[in-house]
Amino acid sequence: MSVAHPKIAIIGAGIIGLSCAWELLKRGAEVSVFDKQWPPVGASWAAAGMLAPAFEAAGEGVAHPEFFDLCLRSARMWRGFAEEIEQASGQGVGYCEGPALAVALDEAEAEHLLRLEARLVESGLTAERLSRRDIGALERGVSPDFELALALVSDGRVDPRRTVLALRTAIERAGGVFEIVPEGVSGAQLTEGFNTCLDASGVGDGAGAVQAVEGVMLAFRRADMALDHVVRCGAEYAVPRGEHVLVGATVGEVADARAFLLSRAVRFLPRVRSAALVDQWRGFRPATPDRLPIMGRGSDARTFVARGHYRNGILLAPITAEIMAEVILGGELAGFAAAFAPARFGATA
Ligand SMILES: Cc1cc2nc3c(=O)[nH]c(=O)nc-3n(C[C@H](O)[C@H](O)[C@H](O)COP(=O)(O)OP(=O)(O)OC[C@H]3O[C@@H](n4cnc5c(N)ncnc54)[C@H](O)[C@@H]3O)c2cc1C
Question: For a substitution probing ligand 1, which of 185, 216, 314 has the most ligand atoms within 8 Å of its CB?
C-alpha cells in the first residue's frame, strides 16, 4: 500500500538518510530530515569513501549472492549521483573514478586476490594484473615486494564529508527541511504530523538487529606519502583525500589501534613510517548479524527502514535511495532488493 500524498520524516542525516531524502524530493514528496547533530558525525563522517564493489566480489565475510550485484549497481550510479548533487548544491563531493590498486604480500592475500579476479572476470569486469614496473610507474610509494597486484577499474572514491554537506544544501534548495531533534523529544513526538517515517539512524540506539562495529582511521600528510590511488592490501587500505592520506581501518575493538594500523600499513606503504600523522578518529559501522543492509518496509504500514550498511554505506547510497524511494512511493520492493528486506530479522529490525 502506498500513501497518496506522502509527508515523510527521515530519522538520521548520515549519507543514507540524506540520499533517500534527495531521491524522494526529486520524485515530488514532502520531506523533513531529523538528526541529533550537525555535521552528522556518525559512520558517514568517519568513512574513507571508497566505492569498492570489487572487494565484495570474493565474498570475504559476506557471502550473499545478491550483494555483489547490489554493490556493482550502486557503483555504476555514483558518477551521475555525484554530478547531480554537485549541480544542485554548487559544492564539490570529491568523486574520482578508479582504478584502485590491490596488492598481495603473502600467499593468503594472493589467494584472496585470485578469487576476486576470477569473480570479476566471471561478471564481465576487468582486473588488470600489474607488474613491478607498472606499480612503480603508478605509485612509487608501494612496496615492490608483492606477490600479485591488480588494478581494479570498478573501484573509485568520493569524499563522504563533502558529500553529506552538499546533500544537505541540495535538499534544502529543493524544498526539503532539516531539523535538529530537540533534547528530550521522543521519536513518536518527532514524527507526529507525518504519514510516513523512514528510519535511517545508522547504529541508532544500538538495540535490535543493528549493532555498532568500531573502526579507527589515521590521517597522514599527503606530501609525505605522495599517493594518488586507493591502495588496498589484505584488510587495510590507504586513500588519498585532499591534503591527507587516510589509512584504515580497524574492525572491532583493537587495544592500540594506531600501532596496529601502522604495523599493517608499513608492509605495503613503507613511507608511512616517516609520514606526519595529522589526525585520528573512530566511527561505528552499523552492522546486522548477516552483515547485509536492511532496506524496505518496517513493522507497520507507515514505517520504513534503511540501516545496517556496515562497511559499504557510502558505496550503497545511490542504490539505497532508489530502492527506498520506489518502495515508499510505489509500495513494492524491487525484485533484486528483496533479499535485503527487514522481515528477515522479524520485529527486531
Ligand atoms: C572507519 C570507517 C571507514 C569506512 N569506510 C567506508 C568506505 O570506504 N566506503 C563505504 O562505502 N563505507 C565505509 N564505511 C561504512 C559507512 O561509513 C557506513 O556504512 C555508512 O556511513 C552508514 O551510513 P548511515 O547514514 O546509515 O549512518 P550514519 O552515517 O551513522 O548516520 C546515522 C545518523 O543518524 C543519526 N541518529 C541516530 N539516532 C538518531 C535519533 N534517534 N534521532 C535523530 N538522529 C539520529 C546519527 O546522529 C547519525 O548522524 C566506513 C565506516 C567506518 C566506521
Answer: 314
Residue 1 lies in a domain: no
| Distance from Cα 160 to the centre of ligand 1, integer Å | 10
* Tally of domains within the chain: 2
Beta-carbon contacts of residue 341 (< 8 Å; ≥ 6 apart): 294, 295, 296, 297, 333
pLDDT digits (tens, 9 = 90+) for 186-196: 777 888 889 99
- Please give the model's pTM, rounded to 2 decimal places: 0.96
Q: Is the same domain home to 18 and 72?
A: yes
Among the residue ranges 6-20, 174-188, 241-255, 278-292, the one predicted with the least confidence is 174-188
Residue 206 DSSP label: S
Of ligand 1's atoms, which has the minimum distance to the CA of residue 164?
A: 29
**Is 22 a residue whose pLDDT tops 90?**
yes
- For the stretch 56-92, pLDDT in tens is 776 655 456 789 889 999 999 999 999 999 999 999 9
Taking CA atoms, 195 is separated from 2, 9, 23, 173, 315, in Å, by 11, 8, 18, 23, 29
Ligand 1 binding pocket includes 280 (Cβ within 6 Å): no
Q: Does residue 2 sit within a domain?
A: no
